[in-house]
Design goal:
The structure is a single chain. This protein is mostly helical. It is built from 22 helices and four strands. It has helices at about 15-40, 45-55, 55-85, 95-100, 110-120, 125-135, 150-175, 175-185, 190-220, 220-225, 230-240, 245-270, 290-320, 330-365, 365-375, 385-410, 420-445, 450-460, 465-490, 495-500, 510-515, 520-550, and strands at about 5, 10, 90, 285-290. The strands form two sheets. A two-stranded antiparallel sheet has the order 1-2. The protein has a two-stranded parallel sheet with strand order 3-4. The protein is globular, with a radius of gyration of 25 Å. The relative contact order is 0.14.
Length: about 550
């Protein structure tokens, strides 16, 4: 089989096709950001003035406050639990070091529904307190769950595993010789941790904190349910309640700038991560804790598991039993079918796009391939609401222009062909989660020797043939993992789905949000439990990997 090449550029027909597809994917990924910037700049100036004089400073200040508190909380909880499970031995350590990943299965807004049912004024905790003490509603003070502090608590409980996983991996990779050297120089175990172990793990911890912070500014379900006004809630309010797309675009641009700053910080942090443990890598031997210190360490690691997984799961189960919602009804079967369809199609499209971008970088490494990969990674730092606005604005303009043209020329009304379609929503999911699929692809392709590519080309395989017959069979586990991650993320995604879903096309996440907004928390528990059950799939894979390492 002969390979047809472009003599001018030395590229085969398959490579040219890969280049074209990669440029198409990259252009679609960049489109939301360009559209948001243009729409914000073209919006009326008095809109921005009104926003600045009314809500914008409050939105921005609340977003910054929320992000700072969640960053501090995830740093403290994730680092402490990671160090305890690596450097010490205490009762239940082998179970807890795996169970600490469980809160990743819970979306923050689902956690908010469970704790509101438990801790709100009519909830079981305060009702029991009044029944036991005989107090009235005004006779005692109780922390308000629907507040900024409540939102911080929910987000910390579900996001600390990002810091825990990265910090734990960093601590495990450190050599005991560095700790021995610190101890020989007179440092106590605590001083050795603060002066040696923690600084060496700083890049990994900072990466985890930045990931948690980016998830925080992207959150809509939790803050909207608790009545916390952030830039994310402002976008949705401007788009739907005020019908002001200019204001929504301007708020989206502010949130986009915030997200991109965090993304650049995360990238700079990775670029400067140049810590070395030396040639001799000797694992740190866990220090056995006895007596009250061992039980205290166990309590520190058990509390996040209890509050972040076991208690909300129990609360949601009890709530579901008291609800009038049935998963077996025709209506709920439609919600499940819609969710599974969107998640499955989005996973296939996203993994396919990641394979196209990665294959071009593999076949023709260079600035163009690197640029397309970078464009594909942009979405991971951008909230779903920003991507939704960035896609709705240009495609709505396209649909309106096409409809006007067809009516004037042929007397036909085309309506909205793209806006409000499933495919545009799937495109938003692809932009949002493509970075995760690219990461999984790169992790798998790193284990495929370049010699295999050369052998395939010598045997007459084109670029597409090499991908289809060599890469895809060897990358099947990595691509399946990428698809699973995207599938679960789509099931949990709320803001983009709320803004872009087709009319009367609701998912489990939308149904849970609608019922919770109507204060029907028992009903919201039913779709929430399904979302959590699906979210357990990648968490189980993570737990299996942690168990093997243990």
């Amino acid at each position: 089989m002969l390979v047809t090449r472009d003599r001018g550029k030395g590229r085969s027909a398959g490579e040219r096709t890969l280049t074209g597809l990669s440029l198409l994917v990259a252009a679609f990924c960049i489109l939301p950001f360009v559209a948001v910037a243009i729409a914000a700049l073209l919006a009326q100036g008095d809109t921005l003035v009104q926003l600045w004089n009314s809500v914008l400073p409050r939105y921005a200040a609340t977003t910054l406050h929320l992000a700072a508190l969640v960053a501090l909380g995830t740093f403290a909880l994730g680092t402490a639990t990671a160090w305890l499970t690596v450097a010490t031995e205490f009762p239940g350590r082998r179970v807890l070091e795996v169970a600490l990943v469980l809160p990743l299965a819970f979306p923050a807004y689902v956690m908010a529904y469970a704790y509101t049912h438990l801790l709100d004024h009519p909830g079981i905790v305060q009702s029991t307190l009044r029944a036991v003490t005989g107090w009235g509603p005004r006779d005692y003070w109780f922390p308000e769950i629907r507040s900024l502090g409540g939102a911080v608590a929910m987000l910390v409980l579900v996001l600390y595993p990002y810091v825990y996983l990265l910090a734990r991996a960093a601590f495990l990779s450190q050599s005991a010789t560095t700790v021995f050297a610190a101890r020989a120089l007179g440092c106590s175990p605590a001083a050795a941790f603060w002066r040696v172990s923690l600084p060496m793990a700083r890049p990994a911890i900072a990466a985890g904190v930045l990931l948690a912070t980016m998830e925080t500014i992207a959150d809509y379900g939790t803050v909207s349910f608790f009545g916390v006004q952030t830039l994310a809630t402002g976008i949705y309010t401007s788009w739907f309640n005020l019908a002001d797309r200019g204001a929504a675009a301007q708020l989206a641009l502010g949130l986009l700038a915030f997200a991109l700053v965090l993304a650049m910080l995360e990238r700079l942090n990775r670029g400067r991560a140049a810590y070395h443990a030396g040639r001799r890598i000797e694992p740190v031997a866990p220090q056995r804790l006895t007596g009250w210190t061992g039980w205290a360490a166990a309590a520190v690691c058990a509390v996040p598991v209890l509050l972040g997984a076991l208690l909300p799961a129990l609360a949601l189960s009890v709530m579901a039993l008291d609800s009038e919602q049935s998963l077996f009804s025709r209506r709920y079967q439609g919600f499940v079918a819609n969710s599974l369809t969107l998640a499955s199609v989005a996973a296939l499209v996203t993994v396919g796009a990641a394979t196209i971008l990665g294959s071009l970088h593999r076949a023709r490494p260079g600035r163009l391939a690197s640029a397309t990969l970078y464009a594909g990674r942009l979405g991971y730092a951008v909230p779903g609401g920003v991507i939704a606005v960035g896609l709705m604005v240009p495609f709505a303009a396209f649909d309106n222009a096409l409809d006007l043209f067809m009516e004037q020329r042929f007397g036909l009304r085309t309506g909205l062909l793209v806006t409000g379609s499933i495919w545009l929503l799937v495109g938003a999911y692809m932009v949002r989660f493509l970075a995760a699929a690219i990461g999984a692809y790169e992790g798998g392709i790193a284990n495929v020797s370049p010699n295999m590519d050369a052998a395939a080309r010598v045997l007459g395989q084109s670029a597409f043939g090499t991908v289809r017959r060599v890469h895809l069979p060897m990358l099947r586990p990595s691509l399946m993992t990428a698809g699973l991650i995207v599938f679960v993320d789509v099931m949990k995604e709320l803001p983009a789905t709320l803004i872009m879903r087709p009319f009367n096309y609701d998912t489990l996440a939308v149904q849970a949000h609608r019922l919770a907004a109507d204060e029907r928390l028992e009903g919201a528990a039913v779709p929430s439990l399904v979302i959590v059950a699906v979210g357990l799939l990648p968490v189980v894979l993570l737990m299996r990997n942690l168990r093997r390492r243990a």
